[in-house]
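Hello support,

Our group uses your service weekly, and this is the first time we've seen a run hang past the timeout. The protein is Endoglucanase. I'm not sure whether the cause is the sequence or the server load. Input pasted verbatim:
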Amino acid sequence: MKTKLITVGLVIFAFLIFGCLGNKGDVALTEPGSNRKINYNGIELIMEFNFWNIKEFNGSAELAYYRSNNTIMFYANLSGVVMKEPHRYVQGYPEVIYGYKPWTGHKTQGDLPIKIKELESFEVTLNYSLWHERDLPINLAMETWITAEEKAKEIKEGDVELMVWLYSNSLIRPAGSKIDITKTKIVVNSTLREVEWEVWLYCNALPWDLITFRLKEPIKSGEIRLDVTPLLSTAKEVFEENLCRVEKFDELYLEDWEVGTEFGGPHSRSANFGWQISKFEINDGR
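Update from on-call engineer: The timeout came from a worker crash unrelated to the input. Re-ran successfully.
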């Protein structure tokens, strides 16, 4: 059994965030669209300053890696935000990536991509916290791209975006329609719990199909450990039972695993938030 240990830390309180301005990390990204590979104890990750739907803004934001304590910090203090495509609702998804991301073609070392049917388990451990201004639409979400072609160069019909929302406020909701509730067991702060996930489906609207699992009781901070395979099994059933474009879900490739925050909306002109992840482990059972 092989375990990939990814430990990442970020700041969450405003006084720490603004203190970072005078304390640059070993690797610091301040330009939207920039990305950088980092080596964490021999494990490769990609930091991506992903403001994919922002045309312009005032203020500052930074994604930085501090080698001395193996932390990655992100903060944003934005105003005057102008979106490229307001109908796409969210403004960005600053993130950390493990695996291969089709949109950029960037890949880390490790075992992803892997066919869904070859996964014995896919357990993710994440210790995180998040702060944000009250009126900002925001989530803290993990996601993966699941594709028919290994190391796909583009996302197309028959491919899947699968999201796992651990936290979201009332100002943001998944795309599509809520079609079901499913239950799984996860460990929260060392306690095994059964939790409910809303299942949201968005088919035949984008070039790909999107399924989102959103916790009914959001967790804004804490340590969670969950096996993703029950959610993958539910996704397979959903695509078999609904008129989407996904065929032979088990034959598709799970390309990567990402963690970040979707934020903002068509009416949001400012964004003030930060997040912290102090533990990130992936165990694929091999």
